[in-house]
Design a protein that fits this description.
Layout lengths: L2 H8 L4 E6 L5 E5 L4 H10 L4 E10 L4 E10 L4 E10 L4 E3 L8 H12 L2 E3 L28 E5 L5 E5 L6
Parallel strand pairs: 2-5, 6-7
Antiparallel strand pairs: 1-2, 3-4, 4-5, 8-9
Amino acid sequence: MSAPTDLQERFPSAVLQVGALDDGLPLLRVAPEALASIAAAAKELGFDYLVCITGVDYPADDQIEVIYNLYNYHRREALVIKARIPRDEARLPSVSGIWRAALFLERETYDLLGVHFEGHPELKRILLPEPWVGHPLRKDYDMNRQQFVSKGPQGEDVVGFDPQEGW
């Protein structure tokens, strides 16, 4: 039995779709609230490597899709899990207790897309300084507003803006 079929049988109401990406990689679309349970089951099936977590902002649908790429080295098999969440309530359960790599990857996704991973032990920006305004991978991020980072008197990051913009 394939991993997607096995997971669909284990979580019939939470696996919303089983399919494949254009390149043939197996794909599961899952209910956001069941993500952690499905991820734990995927690890039990041998998907012990979390390759990456990324996301896509769909402002027209008012949703963000978070994408998990998994790999099973023993069977040389990949699996992609996707979960869609509302943009204004971009929250998912953390999988950092399942794969240690998620400690970094969830912080990156939080930083760039603004997705909050509930239960993450240290969810804070990892690529941009804490006072940075916005999330650069969101479609409504203002690429024309220039932000500048400098150090404050105690060594803290200070974000400044182009004075001509009035910020």
